[in-house]
User: What shape does this take?
Amino acid sequence: MNLVKNFLKIAGNLQSRAPIHCSAVLGSYNYGPRKFEQYNKTIFPPEEGVVRPAYVCHVKKNIRYSPTKMWYVACLVRGMSVDEAVRQLSFVLKKGAKDVKEAILEAQQMAVEQHNVEFRSNLWVAESFVGKGKYFKGIRRHARKRMGEVEYKHCHYFVRLEEGPPPENYYPAPLNPEQQLDKWMEQIRRRKITGSL
Assistant: This one.
């Protein structure tokens, strides 16, 4: 009888120490995105005269941060060298910048150890984007027994590092008015009337 009382006493102490936030936890059933990392296993056939730079794909899954906010950080580092990206992220005052910096450094380490990249600083960020992760719903108590809905948002960060120097302009330069006119004229001339001979 004393044994049962002691057990109930211990169980009561454990329950009183439980954290306040008790919503669903990311369980083992949620593996996150798996296809992006499969690109590391791609084997290209040898082609004469084609030099293909080495690359490495990496995903940081289920980051406790909004994908909308993470998008700004992901856009910042596109087209930069790895050292410059890490340097810039050290000064960004957003919570997601720390996770992006960690993901880039992990990918850099993978490139050197698993993908035969000779110099760790000879890499640049070829792709950097965000995907939506799990959203957990919770409630927030308001006055007069009312409730508000809260979303606990998660996101996945994807990065692809490529060997070599970064390009001069990652984003294409905007067209001047003459180039825009030429492009429009070319589109107009390429039109076809459907059903004609």
